[in-house]
Amino acid sequence: MTPGFVWLSEAARVLTFRAPRWERLDGGPWTLVVLVLLSLAVGLGLQREAIDGAATFEWRSIFKSWSATVVSVWICWLLIASPRRLEPGPANVGTLVSLLVAVTVLLNIADGLAAKLAPAVFGPADAWPDWGRWVAWLFPMVWEGLASLRLWWRLTASGMVRVIALLLTPLPIAISGWLDPMYFWWPARSAEAREEYSGLSLSEDVLDTQSQLIANALRALPPSQPGVVNVYAATYAPYASEDVFMHESAVVAKTMSERFGTSGRTVELVTNAKSQNTLPWATRPNLHKTIARIGAVMDREKDVLFLHLTSHGGRDGLLATDSYPLESEPMTPALLKQWLDEAGIRWRVISISACFSGSWIEPLADDGTLVMTAADATHTSYGCGSRSPLTFFGQAMYVDALKATWSFRQAHAQARQLIEVREKEAGKTDGYSNPQIREGAAIGEVLKRLEAQQSAQTRR
Q1: 204-459 has which CATH code?
Q2: pLDDT at 460
């Protein structure tokens, strides 16, 4: 078996666009096993480092992203089988696959070190411009893709094989880095939550009730009232073991009803054992159905969708789900954007109450969207513990600020100030959560009409 440092040395040559020295490499089955285990260990360590505080391990994530491996192995086989070689290459497919795994290991190590060193050079990540954060996220994937293509070019002179490699190379990188990544760690529930929470009931009666609840909620949504800006509202609280998210859903729905007249046009999606007989669960299929139904009944030219999502959030941009024993996937901003676009919903106000929720702004932003978050992309929010009545963002935004204005922008500005004061008083130690907001170029006029409309109705 070739020593591990030799594989990493040759991986470094690939990442610096130099030819690997194939005579030093012999990729037998045990070599591949060791390198794959090393890759998993590095990924586990880096992901754990990215989560502040206690975390729980999700071992089933090991079964994700393997479609990317299949594509990579197929490309390797195609290159080895190509009869036209420019220079000496690997002796077999196993050697080439092992080298690609070593490349991924080395790139992940370099990326992890860069993430640690970058704040000292460029300042805190929350102070970076949006394009800077996008570059930091995309750069390792682009670099890996270019290095892989350079390696493919060295191994074959066949124009057809090169074209196929060019077209397929981005696919495994996109799958493992964006479409279906392995996420092993999630913020841990508090000890109190673990003691009090025993899970959802999945009895036949509950499942039948849940099916009826979502159907009734969507069927009850009324068509758009002509001549006014109608606001349709939905909440999404998928973390069952801590009641704070269920409470926040209720408070947000109440505020939207009182301030924007959404009574009868609101769908609350909440995963919690205490509400499972009264509210439909916050699952991805239910949210998809809700968005599609609202898009079908609203007047897309003038009406507005308000959507509030509340849960724990990770640095990876996923909105945590806790629905034991029901298996449910975490929500992502890319998937939410896709569903909103498919539903044809033009005007959107999206509120995300979660740690690191600033990472949702860029994927969701467009001319017809206002996005508000409880934190930036690099800080935790506050008040999401099992004994909290509301998150700090939920309290400041939907109890305190919106009672005095119909402007989401003004309310968010006031909420930022309240949250900063309250976090200092509460002794938050990891820095100001720094709630963010982004308003699209076109939605501003629609929201101004809504503010004027609600103000006029109040004066009557």
Answers
A1: 3.40.50.1460
A2: 63
